[in-house]
Automatic annotation (TrEMBL):
It comes from the Bacteria. This is ABC transporter. SMART domains: AAA (SM00382). GO terms for cellular component: plasma membrane.
Amino acid sequence: MPASISKTFPALRVSGLSKRFDGAAAPVWSDVSFDIPHGQRVAIIGGNGAGKSTLLRCCMRLIDADSGIVYFGDQSVTGLRGNALSKARSRVGFIFQKHNLVSRLSVLTNVLHGGMAWARTPRMWFQGVAASEHRDYALHCLDQVKLGHLSKRQAGELSGGQSQRVAIARALMQKPSMIFADEPAASLDPQAGEDVMQVFSDLARDESLTLVFVTHHLEHALRYADRVLGLQDSRLSLDVPSNSLSAQQLRGMYE
Ligand SMILES: Nc1ncnc2c1ncn2[C@@H]1O[C@H](COP(=O)(O)OP(=O)(O)OP(=O)(O)O)[C@@H](O)[C@H]1O
């Protein structure tokens, strides 16, 4: 199992991050810095094209920033490659708008996939899927997203909201300390979106998970985050506790 992120340091530290895409006249954002303590739920907001997804992707190291450093706990993940990067990422769960479940496989098998990063051969993979302790843990993860009763269902038969919750259970198989979610509710109907965000919120509370999510839904930022980061005019223009966010600040973010 992956080592957990050191609790002496913030769960995530972003220090002086800047990013400009090739050929773009201006940077997406510059000199972005913030620390996120363990167990905090943080929403990233901003207008279209403000660079929310780019910031999350740089934190995940799916793309590289031009300058600055990203730390998971006390470890700088900037510049890591290959196995070292995979090992650092194994402590973090990623959730995207598209859940990418394998539709012809059962819900349980999809969740089991999340814990199989160590399986280097098909034989190891099959042994892992068959191991009762892994199956028990996968069922526990499904219970955490309130879908234990659907473990035998084919993934392709699920609704969008159920699929996203299975994707969260799949991420939980890694026993992550931190989850990054890029618009996890964007393609869902309002009720399914609320259910997904409630699952995240309960997990953060019950499992002390650090949660960083990008959202277009301001009500999700206010209801499910402890803190709101806002991107505007190529910089981090807002960093406030969600319960102190004023209507004026919010309006200003989208002017
Ligand atoms: N791979 C890329 N190559 C070039 N430009 C990119 C790339 N990805 C994003 N951009 C540009 O960077 C800017 C920020 O994009 P990003 O998707 O991060 O914004 P966002 O705030 O998440 O937007 P939205 O709310 O519309 O999803 C946009 O101008 C976008 O066109």
